[in-house]
Amino acid sequence: MDVCTGWYWLVLVWLLHIHACRAETVTLHLRNGDRITGEMISLGVDSVTITNSLLGKIIVPVAQVERLERKHAEPAAVKPTAVPPATATATNAPPPAPTAATNPPPAQTAQPAPAPKPAAAAAAKPPPAQPPPVKPKPPKHWKLDAQIGADLQYNQSDRQLYYGRAKWTYGKDRFRSIVDYLANYGETDGILSANDMSGSVRVELDVDKLKRTFLFNAAGAGYNEIRKIDLSYDDSFGLGYKLLTRTNLALNVDGGVNYQRQQFSNDTTKDYGALRLGELMSAKISRKWILDEKFEFFPRFTDSFGEYRMRFESNLRYLLSNNLNLNLTAIDQYDTQPAAGVTRNDLLLRATIGITF
After folding, report:
1. Which of 31, 36, 302, 311 would you label with 145, given CA atoms 20 to 30 Å apart?
2. Are 58 and 50 a contacting pair, CB within 8 Å?
3. Could you tell me the fold of the domain covering 2-104?
4. Domain 142-356 belongs to what topology?
5. pTM flag (> 0.70)
6. What is the pLDDT of residues 308-318, one digit of tens each?
7. Is 142-356 the same fold as 2-104?
8. 329 and 317 in contact (C-beta within 8 Å)?
9. How many Cβ atoms sit within 10 Å of the Cβ of residue 260?
């Protein structure tokens, strides 16, 4: 009789619980983050059954439920109703049926829902500003090279020799120009040993599509007190050609006619007409060493046959930095018709320090 009474109590509790939950709207929060809302039909030991107008009848295992939320009520953890065990009076009575409290699921603390990401704000945020592109430096069309040097000696013979040079070059498209200025002054034991100055201007213009053939005009003027020339000026024009135009080697040749006028210290004047043959070479030996060389030959045709003058110049340059260099220069001038009492050949060797702008 006592066993039957225990079973009646168990059935009565479940019927009352099911009736209380049938009309209740609940929301199941699952462990994977999903949520299911509907009217609860039954709450068992292993599963929860709800109905949904869209999905119909749904059976959810209790192991997948994190918490149960009733409408208009505080969230409550899923805990099946415990049934009081029946009192066993007979020694051979079967064990009572397992109740929902046998292995209740552990209570879980409600986790706060993650805050929604500000998608709209991120979408509205403008992209980071890009730095402006670096503009390449415009090509430099001109260059200025200034050189100075001195030769000083103080002993039984005192000697002071000063010399300088400035060379300006400009080139753009088919046009090029070179302005060159040289000056020397010196004394030995108080006697003048050097006093000369000369300047020249040369312009070139490319005339073909390959920029290898060019027209040129070269004019110069100066004086040389040691060689008894009070004033000398000349002008040349003609045609030239670029034989080599490599990055480390350039070679130009030219030919034309020349006119020269010299006024000597003895108040005499000479005019010469001559052909002109010229050559100009520049070679980059290494990253630090640069060699350039120029040769000009003028065979005269207005005087007796066989008379001529020539000029040779070579410069060996060592780059100390981008703007500072050392220079060793050799200049040799030869004239078959010098002033009276002056040698035909004039050779100058000098070392200078140069600054390039």
Report:
1. 311
2. yes
3. SH3 type barrels. (2.30.30)
4. Porin (2.40.160)
5. no
6. 999 999 999 99
7. no
8. no
9. 19
